[in-house]
Design brief:
By secondary structure, the protein is of the alpha/beta class. Helix content is 35%, strand content 17%. It is built from 6 helices and 5 strands. It has helices at residues 13-22, 37-46, 63-72, 90-97, 113-121, 129-136, and strands spanning 4-9, 29-34, 51-55, 81-85, 105-108. Helix 2 packs parallel to helix 3. The chain is globular, with a radius of gyration of 21 Å. It starts with a strand and ends in a 19-residue tail after the last helix. 25% of the residues are buried.
């Protein structure tokens, strides 16, 4: 299975750490955290990410500017992008949704991990380690092989 990469562009270290932990139960997901806007933009362009979680409040370059640059670029516009903000309101996000270079999802900080997972589940396909374990418990039977009750061992 191919590695799935998530980029978190967030200047608050403890919040970034809690965001990273949301992905710990998922198969083959590697999370990279970048703390400032310029480095985050460069990393988003150079890496092959399946998702970018982008804080609006960043040093050196705002999240809105990064969003515009990524969604204007042919190479990065298809990467699902979630904007997070502690200062924005639903009205602010609603105005941003009307732009051509908008994010795919918006979320106001602080938020519960389940809300984030619900929002990103519409954007990307994540397989948890639990799902993988359930699949490995399945027993597949060849369609051509028939099982007769008499063939089963006595208990």
């Amino acid at each position: 299975m191919a590695e799935k990469k998530v980029l978190i562009i967030e200047s608050d270290e403890s919040f970034a750490k809690s965001l990273s932990s949301v992905f710990s139960g998922y198969q083959d997901v590697k999370v990279k955290v970048v703390g400032d806007g310029k480095d985050g933009l460069r990393e988003a362009r150079e890496g092959s990410y399946m998702l970018v979680l982008l804080s609006v409040e960043l040093p050196k370059l705002s999240g809105y500017s990064i969003c515009k640059k990524l969604k204007s670029d042919k190479q990065t516009r298809s990467i699902p992008l979630v904007i997070m903000s502690s200062e924005a309101t639903e009205e602010t996000f609603e105005r941003h949704r009307k732009l051509k270079t908008r994010a795919d999802e918006y979320i106001i900080k602080p938020f519960e991990p389940d809300l984030l997972l619900k929002k990103i589940s519409n954007l990307i396909d994540l397989e948890s380690q639990e799902d993988e374990a359930k699949e490995s418990d399945l027993i597949l039977i060849d369609d051509e092989e028939s099982i007769v009750i008499d063939d089963l061992p006595d208990l």
